């Protein structure tokens, strides 16, 4: 059976948008219901062509993303020296310093959700992360668990 024959694309009827602060909007109105917000975050997918959509059951809807689909709201110290990230959807994610970079405009990002998505750091989260930044001969590193990770400029694979 053709999968598209049984799916319904709601995109012509519903406009979904995620702003750079991680807020979701439906047809211009902010989605403030926690359950719907979480359902949409959990249902987000990236298509092979780099676009975003939600898929709930057999229904899909395109999602326009202003910047990154997720935002790092806070940093938490782990017992073993690792860091975890608190994301705008309430989930926590382990911080992978190899997936961290600073964009050309100075905005910090990292990979989240198993590397599937980009997340933009909020200012408070970035300031909290700054305590782990060290400078050595003009280069900047994140120092975690007695190991240094080069802070890259730009995304290694911008999506």
Describe the structure.
It is a single chain. With 159 residues, this protein is mainly beta. 13% of the residues lie in helices and 44% in strands. It has three helices and 17 strands. Strand 5 and strand 6 (52-56) form a beta hairpin. The longest helix is centred in the first third of the chain and has 10 residues, at 34-43. The protein is elongated. The mean pLDDT is 93.
Protein topology:
Elements: H1 3-6, E1 8-9, E2 16-18, E3 24-26, E4 29-30, H2 34-43, E5 44-46, E6 52-56, E7 59-65, E8 70-77, E9 83-87, E10 92-94, E11 100-102, E12 108-112, E13 117-121, H3 123-129, E14 133-136, E15 139-144, E16 147-150, E17 152-153
Parallel strand pairs: 1-7, 2-7, 8-13, 11-17
Antiparallel strand pairs: 2-3, 3-4, 5-6, 6-7, 8-9, 9-10, 11-12, 12-13, 14-15, 15-16
Order of H and E elements? HEEEEHEEEEEEEEEHEEEE
Residue windows where pLDDT falls under 50 for at least 5 positions: none
> Main sheet, how many strands, which sense, barrel?
7 strands, mixed
| Mean pLDDT across residues | 93
Using the alpha-carbon principal axes, give the shape: elongated
Question: How much of the sequence is in beta strands?
Answer: 35-45%
Rg value: 18 Å
- Our count of helices gives 3
Helix content: 10-25%
How many runs of DSSP E, i.e. beta strands?
A: 17
Query: What oligomeric state do the depicted chains represent?
Result: single chain
For the record, give the distance between the C-alpha atoms at the N and C termini, rounded to a whole number: 32 Å
Label the structural class.
Answer: mainly beta
Count of separate structural domains? 2
